[in-house]
Specification:
Number of strands: 10
Order of helices and strands: HEHEHEHEHEHHEHHEEHEHE
CATH topology of the largest domain: Alpha-Beta Plaits
Radius of gyration: 30 Å
Number of domains: 2
Shape: elongated
Structural class: alpha/beta
Strand order of the largest sheet: 2-1-3-4-5
Length: 328
C-alpha cells in the first residue's frame, strides 16, 4: 500500500488545483471493519469527495433511503446482510447510483455475481490507493457523461414540445412532415395529414377566460394522443389548431381515423362546454393524403387546410377529405 507522501505526489488534480470539481459527489462506504472504513474515508475525502460510512449492510440500506448517493463502495463479506444484498437494494432505489464491490481474490466468483446484479465495478483485496482512485474517478466521469447525455436529450425533447399541451410544436411538426412525405414519395407509400380545429373556440375563451381555455386545450391534446395510433405524430399547430401526421394511412383509413377522433371529442365532457353552440365542445377536421392529393409537403398542408375550411363552411363538427365533391 502507498505511503501518505506517495499518495500526495501521485494523486490526480483536485478542484483547487484546477482539476474537475468533485465535491458534489457523495460516496457511501460500507464495511464492517472500522480500520477499512477509516482508511477509505481518509483517501476519498482527500480526493474531494463527500464520504459517509455504514457499519453493515443493514446500516447501508437505511442510509441509502435517507440520502442520495452517487457511488456506494461495499465489502462483499459482511455478517447479516452481505454486499450482494446492498447491490440488490441499490438497484431498487428511485435514484441512480453506482455500486463498487470490494472482494478478496478468493471470492472472485462472488464479484462476478455482484456484477450480474448490477454492480458497476469491483476492487480486489489487498488493493492500493491508486486502484481506489482510478476506479472511483472512472465512475464519476462515467456518471458525468451519462448526465450530460441525458440533459442533452431532455433539452432536445423540450425544444420539440409545445409547453402547454406537451405535443410536438409547430416547428418540429414541419420537420416531421417533411421527413414523412419524403419517405412516402421515395418508397411509393402513403401518408395522410389531419388538420384539426376547435369550433367556435373564441366563444369558449370569451365565456370562461384563457386559463379555462388552456385546460380545454390540454384535455383535447390528451384525447387526440389517446385516439391516435402509436405510429402517428400529434402536434399543436397553433392556437386552437392541431395536426396529426398519419403514416401508411390511405384516404379511407384517414377518414375513419378522423371520424373516430371527432366522435371521441363529441362524447367527451369539457368543463364549461355548455357555453358552446349545441352545449358541447366540438372539432372540425380536414384531411389530405400523399401521393393521391398532394405531391409535396407544402401542397399537403394547403390541401388539408382547404378541406378543414370546407368542413367549417359546411356547419362544423365534421370531417372533410380533400377531393370530396364538397371541396371542389
Amino acid at each position: 500500500m502507498l505511503t501518505r507522501d506517495e499518495l500526495n505526489s501521485n494523486r490526480p488534480p483536485r478542484e483547487e488545483d484546477g482539476g474537475a470539481p468533485k465535491r458534489e459527489t457523495r460516496i457511501l462506504v460500507v464495511d464492517d471493519e472500522e480500520i477499512m472504513r477509516a482508511f477509505l474515508q481518509e483517501v476519498l475525502s482527500d480526493e474531494g469527495y463527500a464520504v459517509d460510512l455504514a457499519v453493515s449492510g443493514r446500516d447501508a440500506i437505511d442510509k441509502m433511503g435517507e440520502r442520495q448517493y452517487e457511488i456506494i463502495i461495499t465489502d462483499i463479506v459482511m455478517p447479516e446482510l452481505d454486499g450482494l444484498s446492498v447491490v440488490a437494494a441499490a438497484k431498487k432505489l428511485s435514484y441512480d447510483v453506482d455500486v463498487v464491490v470490494m472482494t478478496g481474490y478468493a471470492s472472485m466468483e462472488t464479484a462476478v455475481e455482484s456484477m450480474k446484479l448490477g454492480a458497476t465495478d469491483y476492487i480486489t483485496k489487498p488493493f492500493n490507493i491508486d486502484q481506489i482512485r482510478i476506479i472511483v474517478s472512472n465512475a464519476v466521469k462515467e456518471r458525468a457523461l451519462k448526465r450530460q447525455a441525458a440533459e442533452g436529450e431532455f433539452y432536445k425533447e423540450l425544444s420539440r414540445k409545445d409547453g402547454l399541451t406537451n405535443l410536438y410544436n409547430h416547428r418540429f411538426f414541419h420537420q416531421l412532415l417533411e421527413t414523412e412525405v419524403s419517405r412516402a414519395l421515395r418508397y411509393n407509400r402513403v401518408v395522410s395529414l389531419l388538420m384539426i380545429d376547435i369550433d367556435n373556440f373564441k366563444r369558449f375563451n370569451d365565456s370562461h377566460g384563457h386559463p379555462a381555455g388552456d385546460e380545454a386545450l390540454k384535455q383535447l391534446a390528451a384525447l387526440l394522443q389517446k385516439g391516435s395510433r402509436s405510429c402517428d405524430f400529434v402536434a399543436r399547430y397553433g392556437g386552437e389548431e392541431f395536426a396529426i401526421i398519419a403514416p401508411e394511412a390511405a384516404p379511407d383509413a384517414a377518414r375513419r381515423m378522423a371520424e373516430r377522433l371527432r366522435q371521441m371529442v363529441d362524447e367527451e365532457h369539457f368543463e364549461g362546454e355548455e357555453a358552446m353552440p349545441g352545449g358541447r365542445l366540438a372539432i372540425s377536421i380536414g384531411v389530405a393524403t400523399v401521393p393521391m392529393q398532394a405531391q409535396d409537403k407544402c401542397e399537403l398542408v394547403e390541401r388539408a387546410d382547404q378541406a378543414l375550411y370546407r368542413a367549417k363552411a359546411l356547419g362544423r363538427n365534421r370531417v372533410v377529405i380533400y377531393g370530396d365533391d364538397a371541396v371542389n
